[in-house]
Amino acid sequence: MNVSFFQELLNGVAERGRHLLDRSLGGVDPTRELTELSRALLSGRGEASGVALAQEILAQYGVLAAEAQRDFFRFLADELSPNEAMLREAAEGYLVSPNAVSLNALARAVEAPRAEFFRRLNLAPGATAKLVAMRARLLICMESEPNLKPVDDDLMLLFQSWFNRGFLLLRRIDWTTPASILDKIIAYEAVHEIQGWDDLRRRLDPSDRRCFAFFHPSLVDDPLIFVEVALTGELPGSIQSLLTEERKVEDGEAAPTTAVFYSISNCQEGLRGISFGNFLIKQVVEDLARELPSLKSFVTLSPVPRFRSWLATIKDTVDNTLLSEADREVLQLLHDPGWILEQERQQVLKNVLLPLAAHYFMAAKRADSLPIDPVARFHLGNGARLERLNWLGDVSEKGLGEAYGLMVNYLYDPREIERNHEGFANHGTVATARPIRSLLKPASRALVSAGLVEGASAQEAEPEVEPIADTDGIESTNDLVEAQD
Amino acid sequence: MNVSFFQELLNGVAERGRHLLDRSLGGVDPTRELTELSRALLSGRGEASGVALAQEILAQYGVLAAEAQRDFFRFLADELSPNEAMLREAAEGYLVSPNAVSLNALARAVEAPRAEFFRRLNLAPGATAKLVAMRARLLICMESEPNLKPVDDDLMLLFQSWFNRGFLLLRRIDWTTPASILDKIIAYEAVHEIQGWDDLRRRLDPSDRRCFAFFHPSLVDDPLIFVEVALTGELPGSIQSLLTEERKVEDGEAAPTTAVFYSISNCQEGLRGISFGNFLIKQVVEDLARELPSLKSFVTLSPVPRFRSWLATIKDTVDNTLLSEADREVLQLLHDPGWILEQERQQVLKNVLLPLAAHYFMAAKRADSLPIDPVARFHLGNGARLERLNWLGDVSEKGLGEAYGLMVNYLYDPREIERNHEGFANHGTVATARPIRSLLKPASRALVSAGLVEGASAQEAEPEVEPIADTDGIESTNDLVEAQD
Amino acid sequence: MNVSFFQELLNGVAERGRHLLDRSLGGVDPTRELTELSRALLSGRGEASGVALAQEILAQYGVLAAEAQRDFFRFLADELSPNEAMLREAAEGYLVSPNAVSLNALARAVEAPRAEFFRRLNLAPGATAKLVAMRARLLICMESEPNLKPVDDDLMLLFQSWFNRGFLLLRRIDWTTPASILDKIIAYEAVHEIQGWDDLRRRLDPSDRRCFAFFHPSLVDDPLIFVEVALTGELPGSIQSLLTEERKVEDGEAAPTTAVFYSISNCQEGLRGISFGNFLIKQVVEDLARELPSLKSFVTLSPVPRFRSWLATIKDTVDNTLLSEADREVLQLLHDPGWILEQERQQVLKNVLLPLAAHYFMAAKRADSLPIDPVARFHLGNGARLERLNWLGDVSEKGLGEAYGLMVNYLYDPREIERNHEGFANHGTVATARPIRSLLKPASRALVSAGLVEGASAQEAEPEVEPIADTDGIESTNDLVEAQD
Amino acid sequence: MNVSFFQELLNGVAERGRHLLDRSLGGVDPTRELTELSRALLSGRGEASGVALAQEILAQYGVLAAEAQRDFFRFLADELSPNEAMLREAAEGYLVSPNAVSLNALARAVEAPRAEFFRRLNLAPGATAKLVAMRARLLICMESEPNLKPVDDDLMLLFQSWFNRGFLLLRRIDWTTPASILDKIIAYEAVHEIQGWDDLRRRLDPSDRRCFAFFHPSLVDDPLIFVEVALTGELPGSIQSLLTEERKVEDGEAAPTTAVFYSISNCQEGLRGISFGNFLIKQVVEDLARELPSLKSFVTLSPVPRFRSWLATIKDTVDNTLLSEADREVLQLLHDPGWILEQERQQVLKNVLLPLAAHYFMAAKRADSLPIDPVARFHLGNGARLERLNWLGDVSEKGLGEAYGLMVNYLYDPREIERNHEGFANHGTVATARPIRSLLKPASRALVSAGLVEGASAQEAEPEVEPIADTDGIESTNDLVEAQD
C-alpha cells in the first residue's frame, strides 16, 4: 500500500486486461489503448475504479499527438453515440403509449453514452480544466469535421450545467492578486491589449479603477471572464482619456457618479458559447452600487466592430434613400487617412457618418433581424440601451480600422432592462436614446418605426445626456465583448 | 441606484406585471403568484432579470406552508413537463429520418422545461442549498403522491451533474474545525450516535483518530458525507473497544497498521440516491496511505442491520437443510435476553448463529439476487471483501436488536477491488474470506457454489486474519452506511 | 544533511562540550546541564547556533520537575544578574561626567544578562508561548521566594514590549470559530461560568450577542483576553435577564441602542499585570459603533466583589454618621438568607444598602485613596463613569455572597473618558451619575465633595437614565474584570 | 457615536486643550502642536485615550515637512531624555546601597521617557511600519546631526525587541505571491538587479529556483529581507550561468545536490543594524534540507566588493613580499579593459590576482583585525567557510569594477559553523578551504599562521571541491549581503 491505492487499483485493472495497458509492446496504438480504457470507464469497472481509470485516460489523452486526439474524438462521435435500435424502440414505445414510464425510457435512450463518459472522467482530480481544454481542441477539429458536433453538444450541455452561474465566484482582481492570475489577465485581455505589467498596474491599482472576474471552484487560478471598470464623474467619450499613462488620480476627488465598463474578455476558449458576460456585468453593477452609493449610472464604452465593413457594402448599392450622391462624395475623403488630422474634413465626415451609424445600429439587420454589430447584439440582448455615439472615440489603428474611430456607450438602467430585453428579443427593437434616433433620415426612420413605438417611452422624454460626444484630439483603442458572430 | 440593482430590476418586472406581485391584495394566492414568477423565469424575462427573479422565487417558496409547497410541486409536475405534441413530432421525425439533426431535436423535446427552470433558479446566491432542501421536501410529498416522481427525476439528474465527485472537496474534520460544522457532525452521525461534545472530541482529537468529509463549494459549511476512522494495530473485533471513554492514547505507540472505517454517515436528505460513499472511502484510503506508510490494511467495522429480522423469517420455514431441529431449539434461548450475560449460553448460540450468518451474507438473496443486508450490498458493490464475523461485536441495545450483537469487517484491498466488484455486479458473487465460507453448511455451500468459483481465488489460499473474532465482555454499538433498501 | 541542519548544528555544539550534553551518564544533574546550555546561549556560541540552542534549552526546561525549575529560576536570579562591579563603575562614570556616552554605558550595565538570555530563547519556534508559561510558573515560585522578583521584572519588561497593543489582533469569536479556541473560552471564562457548549452557543451565536478576543501572532490559537457583549434596547439591570436560557432572539427586532459588556476574562496567567482590558473595551466600542450605527451607549454590567466584606468591617465601627442605630438593626435582617424571598424585607434592606453602596464607591477608599472595589478601580481608571446601581442584579450564590445581589453599570462615554480618567488618577474623583450621588448621606457627601466639583459637570444636569434599577424576581450571576487586588 | 469612538475621544482631548489642536489659527506651529500631543501621550491622558492620541500624532508627523521632522527629532532628543537629577540620585542611591530595590530604581531612571513614548505610539493601528519609516528618516538626519543618536539608540533597542527572530515568519515567494509583494522584491533586490517582471519570473517560477523572505506580522505586505536560491548539481562558478535567460529547466532532471544562495537583500532601511540574514540563511537551509533530502551542500555565490579598491591601495606600497616587481608589471595590464577579451592576458593576470585574493581574505585586516571585505565579514561571522575563488565569476560592469570579475563561494557546514564562528569572533581566524590557503605566498602565510592552526582541521584533509573555478566566457553580475561598512 506504500505507493498509492489508486495506482494499485489501476494495476488491478491492468492485470485483468493485460493487452490494454501493455505499453511495452512496440505495436501498440495509443488511441486504441485509450479507447479500451474509455470503454472500461463506462463499464462496471468504472464503478469500481473510476477515479483511477479517469486519471489514466486523461493522462494518456494529454500526451496524444494532434491527429491522435482527432481520432479519439471520432471514437467518441461514432462509438459513444445513442444506440439507434434502443432509441427507435423507446421512441416507438412512447408514441404508442405516452406516459411517465415511456417518457423516462425515451429520455435515457436519447442520452449518448459519452455524456456519462464525460461525467466519469470528471472523477479525477483536476479533470474539469482538462475537459475544458479538450473542448477547445475539439472546436478546432470541428471546423474541418462538422460531424464531430454531437460530441460538442454533449460537452456543451455538461458545461452549461457545471458552469451554472450559481457556482461562479466573483472576485476582485487588484494589485494584491497573485501574479500567476495577473499573468492570465494580461494574456486574456482581448479588447484593449495590456502592454505589460506597468499598464496592468495602471488598470488595477488606482482607487478609481476596478477589475472583477468570475472563477469556478474547479479552475482555481484561471478566470473565466473579467471586466475592467473605470469610475468617473461623467459619461466618457473616448478610450484614450481612460487609459492614458499621464492620468492622475487624486484621492480627495469627488465621489464617482459613473461606472464605465470599458473591456470584457472571455478567457476560456473551451467554454465558448457559454455566456457569463450578462451575469458578470449585472453582478458587478449590484456590488459596485452597494459599495459606492454615489454611483448613478452604469455604462459601457464599446467599440463598433462591423461599422466600416458594413459601410463598404452599402456604398456599392444604389439605394439613394440611405446614401445621397453628396454623401458618397464625402465618403471619398476616407480614402486619405489624413482626414483624421484635419479639423475641417473631420467635421464634414462626421455629419455624414453619424446618421449612417444611427442607421447601422437601428435599421440595418441581419437575416435573423438582429443588428449586424455583435457588441450591440450582446448589450441590447442584456437589456441595455444604446446611449451615445462617440465621434473619434477610438483613434487607434484598430479603432479607425473597424469603425473610423467611432465608439458608443450602452447604458444599463435597471428600470428598463427587462422591457428593453423583451423588445429586442421579441421584435428586434433597439432601445436607443432619443438624440440618436433623431439622427435617422426619414427613410431609416420608417424602417425602424415598429420598434420605435416601444422604444420611445415616457422615461426618455428628457434625454439625460448629450447624445453625441465630440472628441477633438487624437486618441486610442476600445472595447469588445463576448460577442461572436 | 442606492438600494440594489437587482431589487430595481425586479421592480421593473413587477411594474410590467402588476397583478403578479401585488401582495397587498387580500385575495392573492401565494402559490399562484409563485407560479407566475416561475413562468416569468422561464420566459425571456428570465434572461434579462434571472438572478433577481430566482431570488424572489426562492424567497417566496421559503415561506410557503407545507400544503402550498405541495401545490407548487404539482405545478412543476403538470405544467413544466415536456410538451407532448412537440415530443411526439420529434419522435416521429427521428423514426422517419434518424440523423444528428433529428436526434438533437428529440433530445431537446424530451427535456422537461422544469430542468431549465431549476438551472435558472440556481442563478440566485445560495440557491443550491435551497434546491437540495426543496428536494428533501419533495421526497416526503412523493411518498403519498408518486406522480411527482418526474419532478424528482429532473432534480436528481441535475444534482448528479452538480455534485459530480470532481467538484467535491475532501476536508479533514478535527478539533480546529469551526464549531458550526462540528455541530452538524454531531447531528448527522447516523451509525454510532455522538453523545455531545466530549464524545465528539474523543473521536476527532486523539492522534489515532481521523474524520474526513466531502464538501461542495456551494454548500460551504455543510458536509455531504463523512467517515470516522480509527488507526489501530489490528483488525478490531468490537465497536466498544474503539469508542470506550477510558481509552488511552500514547503518543509513542507503535505506528498503526490498520485503518478502520467504523462509521459513514450521509448528511443531506435532499441528496438521497446520489452516492458519495464509494468515492469517500477510496479517497480517504488513498490519502491515509500516503500520509502513513505504516498502514497495511483498510477495513470497516460494520453492523449487520437485517440479520435478526431475516432470522425471524426463516425460523418459520420448514427447510431443515438450513435449520435443524436442534438449531431451532438453541435459538429459543434468544427469547431470554439474559443469554448475553452467561458464557455457556453464548457459546451454544454462537455455534448455531455464525453458520447462519455465513448463509445470510453469501446465500440469502433478494429477488434481484443481491444480498439482503444493505451494508453488505454497499461495501461488496464497492469491491470490498467480507473479511471476518465478529461475535458480540456490538452488544448495545441497537446491536443486539439488529443482529444479536454481530458485527463484520469488510476489507478494501486494491488488488481485488475491481474483480470483486465485477463478480458481485455481474453474478452476485460475494467475495468472502475462506474461513467464513468454511462455516457454510453443505446445503448453503451448494447454493453459492457458482459464485465461489470466482471468489476462491489464489490470493486467498492463506487466510491472513483470524476470520472470526470472539468478544467476551459486554460492549457496544455499530456502523451503518449510506445503504438504503 | 538528511536529519536537520539545526540538529547537526547542535551536535557540533555538543562535540565541543561533550560533558554538557552527555545525558547517558547516570549522574548528570539536569539543572546543571541546562545552566551550561544557558551560558552557551549567552556566549558567542549563541550567535552561531542560537536557534538550535534555544530549542534545546526550552525542551530540557519543559521536562524538568517542579523543584528543578525552581533551581533554574535561582540560577537566573543569581548568576544572570547585572555585574555589580561594572555597574558600579558605570554609575560612577556617569556621576563624574554625565553625557550621552556615559549614559549609554550605564544603560547597558544596568540591564541584566538574563534579558538578553530571554530574547535569545525567543529565537526558537514556539518559544513565546513557552516563555509565557515559564513566567506563570515563576509567579508561583515567587510567592514563597520573593527574591526571584528581579527575574520576573525582566520578563515583565520584555512582555510589555512584545505584547504591545500594536501587535494584538482583535478577532470576533463566534460559532464559526475553531472548537479548539472555543474550548479555551469555556475554560478561561472567569466571571459568569460557561456551563458547557450549549451555554457557550447561547452567548456567541444569537444575532444580538458578540464576543471579541485579542490574539497575539505568536500565540496563534490562544486568546489573551476576551469580552462578552450583549446588544440590547436598554440599560440592563440584572445578569439573569441577559443569560437566561429561555431568551428569544427575534430577527426583526428593533435595532439595538446599547452594547453591554457583561464579562471580561484574562486568559494567560503568565501575562498577569500586563493590561489589555482597557484597549479591548475601547477597540470593541470603536468597532461596534462603526458596524451598528444604532448603538448609542456602551456600558458594563459589573459585579461589586468587595461590598459585603467592606460592610462587615464597618458594621463593627461606631461611626454613626455612616450607619445609624436603625440602619444597624435593619442590617440584622441579612443574617437570615430568607430576606431575598420576601418583598417587604427586601425593600427595607434596599433603603439602607443603596446609600451605603453609594458611600462604598464614592467615599470609602484604600490607603492609596483609590476605591476599595477592584472592578471600580479598573473601569474608573479607564475613564468610565459609575452610572447605575442595580438592586438584586445578581441573586446567584456568588452575587449574594459578594454583594447581597448588587450589580452596577459603568458607562463609557467618549466625551468624558479623558476627564474622568484624569480626575480619578490625579484626585481619586469617582465620576458618578447624579442620582447615585444624591443617595449619599450628608456625612458621606462631605467626604467626597472635593471630587464632586469635578464630577458635577454640565453634561450631567439631566440624568439620562433611571439611576437605580429594581429587579423583583430571583435571578443570577455576574461580571468581573481583569482587576486583581 | 456615529463617527468613531476614537474620534470623539480625541475631540474630548481637544476640548480640554483647545489651543493644542486649533489648526484653524493661522499662526500655529505644526511641530509645536505635535510636541504638545506627544507630551499628552506620555501623561495620564495617554492612558485614557492612547490609541486616539497615537493615531493623531502619527498622522500629523506624516505630513510634516522634512525640516519640521528634524525639529521633532530634536524635541525627542532634548526633552524626552532621562531626567538628569533623578538619574543622578538613583545612581548615588545604588552606589550607597546596591540591592534589588536601588537597582530597579536605577534601571527606571536610566530609561529615557521617549522609550515609553515610542511604545505608546505603537498603540495605533499600522504604527509599527510608520515607526520603521520614522527611523529611516532619523538615520538621514543623524548624518549631519550626530547628537540625535540617543533617539536612535532607543528606537533600535525597541526594534530589537519587536523584530526578535521568534516573531518573524518565513514565507516562500513564488509566482502565486501577490503582485504587491513581488513589486517590492523587484525594488529591494540590491545585489543582482531584477530587470522587470520577466526576469523576476525566471528567478521565482522554475522548479529549481526558490526565494524566501522574512515577514513581520505588523508589516503585512512588506518583506524584511529575502534570499534567492538556485538548486544545482554542482558548486556554481559564475553568476551568469545561474541567471542567463537561455537557461532551460528540465523537469525530469537529476535531484539537486547543492543549494546556492546567490543574493540576499535587506528591505527596510529603518531596520538597519538589526541582523536578519544569519537567521534567514540558517532557517532556509533547515527547511530546504527537510524538503529536498538530496541536497548535500549549502553555499553562497558571493561578490568581493572591496578587492579592487584594496588592490589600488597596496599597489602604491613598496612591500615587495606581497607584490613583486613582476607582479606590478602584470597588473599594468588591467589598465586596458581589453584584457578580459584575451585568453592570454587573462591567464597571466589570474596567476597574479588569485594569490593576492587569498591574501585579501585571509591576511589583510582592518584596524579591528577583521577582514576588509564586508561580505566576508558577514558569512565568516555566521560560521561559514571560504570555499572557493571563482575567476571571472562576474564579468558584468559591476563585477569587473568591484573585483576584476572575482566571485567566491562560502560554505555553510553545520558541523563546523560554531567552531568557525568562534575562531573568527575570538581570534579573527578565517576558515578557508586548504587549496585557497595553498595560494598564499610565504609572507602572507606567516601573517595568518595563528589563525591557520585553528582552521586546518582534520576534516579538511581531503579538499572536497576543486578550489578555484575557471570561467572562460563572458558572463555577468553578483551578490551582496546585508553587510555595510
Instruction: Find the biggest chain interface.
Output: C-D, 83 and 83 residues
Order of helices and strands of chain A: HHHHHHHHHHEHHEEHEHEHHHHEHEHHHE
Tally of DSSP β-strands of chain A: 8
Trace the largest sheet of chain A across and list its strands: 1-2-3-4-5
The CATH superfamily of the largest domain in chain A turns out to be Malonyl-CoA decarboxylase, catalytic domain
- Work out the helix count of chain A: 22
The name of the CATH topology of the largest domain in chain A is Aminopeptidase
Helix content of chain A: 40-55%
Q: How many domain modules of chain A?
A: 3
Quaternary organisation of the protein chains: homotetramer
Radius of gyration of chain A: 27 Å
Large-scale geometry of chain A: globular
Quote the average pLDDT of chain A: 85
CATH class annotation of the largest domain in chain A:
Alpha Beta
Q: Which strand-content bin applies to the residues of chain A?
A: 5-15%
Separation of the first and last Cα atoms of chain A: 55 Å
Low-confidence stretches of chain A: 18-27, 451-467, 470-485
- Report the major sheet of chain A: 5 strands, mixed
Name of the CATH architecture of the largest domain in chain A: 3-Layer(aba) Sandwich
Structural class of chain A: alpha/beta
Question: What's the topology here?
Answer:
4 copies of one chain form a homotetramer.
Chain A: H1 5-16, H2 18-21, H3 30-42, H4 44-62, H5 66-78, H6 84-96, H7 100-110, H8 113-121, H9 127-144, H10 149-162, E1 169-172, H11 179-188, H12 197-204, E2 209-215, E3 225-232, H13 239-243, E4 258-266, H14 277-291, E5 297-300, H15 307-315, H16 325-332, H17 343-362, H18 374-381, E6 385-391, H19 397-403, E7 407-411, H20 417-427, H21 434-437, H22 442-455, E8 468-470
Helix pairs in contact in A: 1-4, 3-4, 3-5, 6-7, 8-10, 9-10
